[in-house]
Amino acid sequence: MGTNLTYKNSIQEEIKGRLKSGNACYHSAQNLLYFSVLSKNIKIKINRNIILHVVLYVCGTWSLTPREECKLRVFENSALRRIFGPKMVEVTGEWIKLHNEELNDLYCLPIIVWVIKWGRVRWAGHLARTGERKGAYRILVGKIEEKRPLGRPRCRW
Q1: For the chain, which residues make up each domain, given as ranges?
Q2: What pTM does this model have?
Q3: Which of 5, 104, 14 has the alpha carbon at shortest distance from 57?
Q4: What are the tens digits of pLDDT across the range 120-142?
């Protein structure tokens, strides 16, 4: 499905590449996110439907570590800070950046880590429905019960 794995079954390089692609997409749509005429709901839809879809391509096959979850959250929070903008403190009149908790309160959709976990559940459900004859299902369940054929393996090049 387009996922690159290393010999240690690590997904770090894949996530790093996806974040680079997401940054490129974010910077190409940055003018729309700065544009004050557009409402915040439209900016959220641009973020969710364009930028995050680039980052989350084939996310159902990822197994995340806490470090990778943190990198993905940092990417999402930076885009959300651009959308919601700074907050003015009424007492001093200064503009400050929104904290992560305030971003979570303003952003009513699920965070990126939950979207990835939901994608894994969807992928497992898809594999469960494919049937026992498919190779991906047998790998998921751990049942590879075919005997190897007699003789020398065929050349495949």
Answers
A1: 12-131
A2: 0.74
A3: 14
A4: 888 888 877 877 767 777 766 66
